[in-house]
Amino acid sequence: MEVCGKFATACILGGLGSLPQGPAEAAELVILTNQGVTPGVREVAAAFERSSGNKVTVIQEAGPALERRLASNGPADLVASNPASIEGLAKKGWVVVDTATPFVLAKLGLSVRAGAPKPDISTVEAYKVALLGAIGYSHGCSGTHAAEGIEKLGVAALLMPKTKFVDDGPVVEFLARGDFEIGIQQTNIMVGAPGTEYVGDLPGFLNNPCPSSVALVTASAAPAVARAMIKFMTSPEVAPLLRKTHVEPARQ
Predict the structure, then answer these.
(1) For residue 134, what pLDDT is reported?
(2) What torsion do the CA atoms of 122, 127, 130, 134 make, to the nearest 10 degrees?
(3) Distance CA 163, CA 174 (A)
(4) Strands laid side by side in the 210-216 sheet
């Protein structure tokens, strides 16, 4: 495995002899993703394309737009999203229940606007002090977990007038333009975002990771290849690829 650590892609590609191969059998998969899981899915999708000869298109689509696509049987083979969302889609018959598989875990992190002083968040107490400025987070998983942490710290009422909730894009985009001083979201979305600087992961119990799963769409036009893709996405061999995008595989 040490050799695979150095040559991860080669190891992954070498272990995929059972996947559908060659132009004659090539399929075109569409994977629908939410914002938080998109970077990891794109990374492994590219590796799957190289190894299998199948084409994979990753489309970031969630909420009502996702449901409209699935309800109309629009092109889709897999959905990668938070477990609760996939469970809801399964209840409506849009994804195959027994294919829902844990994919990745994304830690929570904190960023500031580029050039701004970086606060100390190395301990829970230091993080509590750092939050005294204007902050921003989303209503999604990372925002929910951030809010739960703030509540546990006993400063929710104090921070509420200084808090901006973001629903229409990554928190870092609003942070970069100066809408607030500190942004909190999933690490994999924040690291390297233009106009911002990543400070670090949230400390201790405050870092409650956001899980994502992947499932087969009921109306998939290529279910066999899509199932092979799920197996590939959740295999131990892709862990180095996922970690490049600052997430951890759900299954170690």
Answers:
(1) 87
(2) 130
(3) 12
(4) 55-60, 28-33, 78-81, 210-216, 101-106, 248-249
* Angle (CA) 205 188 50, round 5°: 135
Residues 6 or more apart in contact with residue 62 via CB below 8 angstroms:
32, 33, 34, 35, 81, 85
Q: Is the CB of residue 174 less than 8 Å from the CB of residue 189?
A: no
Least Cα distance to 183 among 94, 114, 234 occurs for 114
Domains belonging to the chain, first-starting first, are 2-105+211-249 (3.40.190.10), 108-206 (3.40.190.10)
- Note whether 28 and 52 are within 8 A (CB): no
Expressed in angstroms, the distance from the first to the final Cα of the chain is 14
For residue 8, pLDDT over 80 is answered with: no
Is 73 strand, coil or helix? coil
Token code pair at residue 97: 């229940």
Structure tokens of 191? 């690291």
Q: How far apart are CA 180 and CA 178, in angstroms?
A: 5
Residue for token pair 């590796």: 47
Segment 211-236 mean pLDDT: 96
Helices and strands counted in the chain (H then E): 12, 11
Tokens (6 digits) for 123: 């301990």
* Main-chain dihedrals φ then ψ at residue 19, nearest 5 degrees: -75, 155
Alpha-carbon radius of gyration of the chain? 19
> Which pTM was predicted?
0.84
